[in-house]
Amino acid sequence: MSFTAYTLKHISDRQERLAPGHRMCAGCGSTVGVRAVLRALKPEDRAVITSATSCLEVSSCTYPYTSWEDSFIHTAFENAAATTSGVEAAYIAKKKKGKLDETYKFITFGGDGGTYDIGFQSLSGAMERGTDMVYVCYDNEAYMNTGIQRSSSTPLYADTTTSAVGAKSNGKPQFKKDLTKIMAAHHIPYVAQTTYIGNFKDIHQKAETAIYTEGPAFLNILAPCPRGWRYDESNLTDICKAAVDSCVWPLFEVIDGEWVLNYEPKKKLPVKEYLAMQGRFKHLFKPENEHLIDEIQDGVDCRWEELRSLCGIG
């Protein structure tokens, strides 16, 4: 497989496939991720974009307007991947009959609610069937579109409207589901976890690999939400960098079953420094709750060492 050498200027000069004028919040991580993924498409290729109901959908496709330059299908929470499977099957049939000459790529976007939870069954089915598509989860760790309710992606002790902090609660009592590892267990050709730090090289290369790998691929992108996470909109990149440097959100990929760690911080950032950047964790910094931060740190350390082991790093 041959890929374009990455330079930020070259990639930034490509035509935008998500037009400006959408209604996403300033400082939102999802649209940054979507733009980065779509820039990995070769200019000559067309795409069919499917989106589960989400912030992304309601803000980018408000009738009679759309921000999508490629073909776009809004589908329900629970069947975004299944819809893409059907469209890809129709494309193959038309190609065989000589009714289509163009090259199309099939990309599905979903938030964590429509991916980790409601849409998981159709995602798992599409991956198991071998649909030639990329499923991109923009993970903002709660149901942000409907009022910041907890999802199975919400981290331990995060404050949401359905895991609210109070006299009887310290926030969500469960650890975050490890969906990237679950997708790797489907034995598909390509799985990757990324976010946007530095010069976007990591997210671009992984998006390009996912799009141009034959067969199903899954891309999980940490996409902070300023409303749900409660941070100043200008701090988006700093939060993503802290997530990676604290090993809360490691950068890795699984290529045909081989685990590859893409980045290992020279000095791990304490998890509390990442948590301190977000209002949803402010209750943890009360003196009586310091042990909860230690519990989060222990969980992150355990999963980090497990990942290093999977990647063959002793």
Q: Provide the residue-averaged pLDDT.
A: 94
The shape, in one word, is globular
Radius of gyration: 19 Å
In CATH terms, what is the fold-level topology?
A: Rossmann fold
Look at the structure and give the CATH class: Alpha Beta
Return residue spans where pLDDT drops below 50 for at least 5 consecutive residues: none
Strand content: 15-25%
Question: Which bin fits the share of residues in helices?
Answer: 25-40%
Tally of domains: 1
CATH architecture: 3-Layer(aba) Sandwich
CATH homologous superfamily designation: Thiamin diphosphate (ThDP)-binding fold, Pyr/PP domains
Order of helices and strands: HHEHEHEHHEEEHEHEHHEEHH
Give the strand order, joined by hyphens, for the main sheet. Answer: 2-1-3-4-8-7-9-10
The total of helices stands at 12
Number of DSSP E strands: 10
Largest sheet: 8 strands, mixed
Instruction: State the end-to-end distance.
Output: 30 Å
Keywords:
single chain; 314 residues; alpha/beta; Rossmann fold; eight-stranded mixed β-sheet; two-stranded antiparallel ribbon; 12 helices; 36% helix; globular
How would you describe what is shown here?
The protein contains twelve helices and ten strands. By secondary structure, the protein is α/β, with parallel strands linked by helices. The chain has a single domain (8-310), classed as Thiamin diphosphate (ThDP)-binding fold, Pyr/PP domains (Rossmann fold, 3-Layer(aba) Sandwich). It has an eight-stranded mixed sheet with strand order 2-1-3-4-8-7-9-10, with helices on both faces. A two-stranded antiparallel ribbon has the order 5-6. Helix 2 packs across helix 8 and helix 4 (80-96) packs parallel to helix 6. The chain starts with 7 loop residues before the first helix and ends with a helix. 46% of the residues are buried. The mean pLDDT is 94.
